[in-house]
Amino acid sequence: MGKVVMYSSVSLDGYISDQQDQPGPLFEWLTGGDVPLDASGELKVSQASFEYTRSYWDQIGVTVVGRHVFDLTEGWDGNPPSGVDHMVVVTHRPPPADWDPEGSFYFVEGIEAAIAAAQELAGSRIVEVAAGDVGGQAFAAGLVDEVRMDVAPVVFGSGKRYFGGVDTQQALGDPQVLVGNRVLHLRYPVLR
User: Fold this and answer.
1) Which of 89, 95, 96, 99 is nearest to 67 (CA)?
2) How far is CA 121 from CA 3, 40, 103, 110, in A?
3) Number of H helices and number of E strands within the chain?
4) DSSP-assigned beta bridge partners for residue 149
5) 0.85 exceeded by the pTM?
6) 29 exposed, middle or buried (CB, 10 Å; 0-12, 13-18, 19+)?
């Protein structure tokens, strides 16, 4: 099985969105460079961010998100973002009535079941868990192998926390650090 990585862009003070669920300038680094990150040409980053982000994205097989993020994005119109093959949505509610059951989205109740389903779908590829409440639940349950953060130079003061409402202590290993344009890329292995 591939490793489970908790990921998001984050403010300096630990928020993944503001009080209105808006990311504000957290993703400016994705458009502030000169190297295209994907075929759309809309995302352009520094060379350092390209090498870091592109190699990571190419390893992701499945992304796990909560129903709140799914609803906010309107399910990405049925197309998983960033070239990801599958999305697992952690939810107690059924899929939208008009949702294609043969698509790349799987609706699963409970974080343990969601991670297990994602690992089966991903095989040896990475299972990415979106930071926030779902990521915090996976982290607290001991299901996360690595924490990745793209730290943007902004302070929100309040909003949605990177680790959600997690109430646990966990030691992380030494970080790998990469400086990009308007972003600091951090990777921490989770110590077991």
Assistant:
1) 89
2) 13, 26, 13, 17
3) 4, 12
4) 8, 186
5) yes
6) buried
Report the distance separating Cα 58 and Cα 51, nearest Å: 11
For residue 170, which phi and psi values (nearest 5 degrees)? Answer: -150, 130
Q: How far is CA 120 from CA 13, 65, 84, 113, 187, in A?
A: 35, 16, 15, 11, 24
Q: What per-residue confidence (pLDDT) applies to 176?
A: 97
Contact in structure between 130 and 174 (CB atoms under 8 Å): no
Q: Which residues contact 22 (CB under 8 A, 6 or more apart)?
A: none
pLDDT for 41 beyond 90: no
Higher pLDDT, 56 or 78: 56
The 10s digit of each residue's pLDDT in 141-162 is 999 999 999 999 999 999 999 9
Pairing label, strands 44-45, 35-36: antiparallel
Q: What is the pLDDT of residues 86-134, one digit of tens each?
A: 999 999 999 998 888 888 999 999 999 999 999 999 999 999 999 999 9
Residue 1, C-beta contacts closer than 8 angstroms, at least 6 positions apart: 119, 122, 123, 124
d(CA 89, CA 96): 12
Which string of b and e fits 87-116 if b means at least 16 CB within 10 Å?
A: bbbbbeeebeeeeeeeebbbbbeebeebbb
